[in-house]
Write a structure and sequence with these properties.
- The protein has about 210 residues and is an alpha/beta fold.
- The protein is built from 6 helices and 10 strands, in the order βαββαβαβααββββαβ.
- α2 (about 55-60) crosses α3.
């Protein structure tokens, strides 16, 4: 399968890339800085660009079987539209090139999953992480209104633990440990690209 990955230089994007390569997929990695790409492989095509530039985004999307969006702002807490604007440009590019399958990673606490948070976590999201949450909310709105075959994955607290293949997935479920390995998020995404059981759904993944 031909997969375009946005956010490929982040930890979750890197894990998706590694597992996708292990499964024989061809990757188009969209990056601003190629030197930050954490893996090299002959099955990776690098497209250099910026998600704020719609033309370069469309270039990466053309000819793909599916697009995976793991855009993030790192530890930056100031107001940003990186996720929402980037995702809107991805959607526009997909429509222009006739690509239908889109998987987007946001966060637990966004959208309908807000009610599954503890009072303490709600306070944290509404204050410290308010800018990120607002951007994710706008991002999810764009995805749900896209008309594409979309799936939204909302992880609980991400960790760098090894893949287990054992996790909970569902709409509006509560977090057990409030943690999930990035490797397990990647595992779910790649399984979903084959199974297509979650099209049109926004689900939480947690331990």
């Amino acid at each position: 399968m031909k997969l375009a990955i946005f956010g490929v230089t982040g930890k979750t994007g890197l894990e998706i890339t590694k597992q996708a390569l292990e499964q024989g997929h061809q990757i188009t990695a969209f990056v601003r800085d190629p030197s930050r790409l954490g893996v090299q492989d002959e099955q990776i095509k690098v497209v250099v660009g910026d998600v704020y530039d719609q033309a370069s985004v469309a270039l990466a999307v053309g000819g793909q079987d599916a697009v995976i969006c793991v855009l993030g702002a790192g530890r930056e807490l100031k107001k940003t539209t990186l996720r929402s604007t980037g995702t809107q440009h991805i959607i526009s590019g997909m429509k222009a090139h006739g690509v239908k399958r889109l998987i987007v990673v946001t966060a637990m606490g966004v959208g309908e999953s807000w009610d599954t948070l503890s009072p303490m976590n709600k306070l944290f999201f509404a204050t410290v992480l308010k800018s990120a949450r607002d951007d994710h909310e706008n991002q999810e709105t764009a995805v749900k209104q896209s008309g594409l075959d979309w799936t939204i994955i909302r992880p609980s607290g991400l960790t760098d633990m090894p893949r287990t293949g054992v996790y909970q997935v569902g709409e509006k479920i509560r977090a057990g440990s409030s943690q999930i390995a990035r490797a397990d998020v990647a595992d779910l995404i790649l399984k979903e690209l084959v199974g297509n059981a979650l099209i049109g759904k926004a689900v939480t993944i947690t331990n």
